Amino acid sequence: MTATSSTVxxxxxxxxxxxxxxxxxxxxxxxxxxxxxxxxxxxxxxSGKIGKLSGPCAERAVAxxxxxxxxxxxxxxxVETAGIVSADTARKWLAGSSTPNFRATMTLIAIYGPPxxxxxxxxxxHWVARAMRAERxxxxxxxxxxxxxxxxxxxxx
Length: 157
Hints:
Elements lengths: L20 E3 L31 H14 L4 H8 L6 H9 L2 E3 L1 H19 L5 H31 L1
Antiparallel strand pairs: 1-2
Helix pairs in contact: 2-3, 4-5
């Protein structure tokens, strides 16, 4: 897909300056334009703010992060991202006063993988489903290998 497509579903647009957030009061541009590549702010589509998650995507990202880290969510995000996202920044996301930018979103994708993408993206994307199945299969195979080793250890002893 191209940047001017109206069906991009990742909820991101090309990066802007690098602060990890923007305030909700900054507003957004909801016009589609072949000239500047900005897309509508429809649910799950690119935000009018360059490099920011759209409101609905940001809400789904926050819900995923809260479900993943039900206690001390902001602090857990800072730990998981090795400080790339500070607890203060995460608290602003959780409060709804800011949304993750491109760099922060890419960090969250790298840390939380396909489950994060599936939670945030609005479209039923087959490649995300395949990635989730592959991740689950790898986890099951690792658990199988661990259990097999444990069984062998018990039967020898």
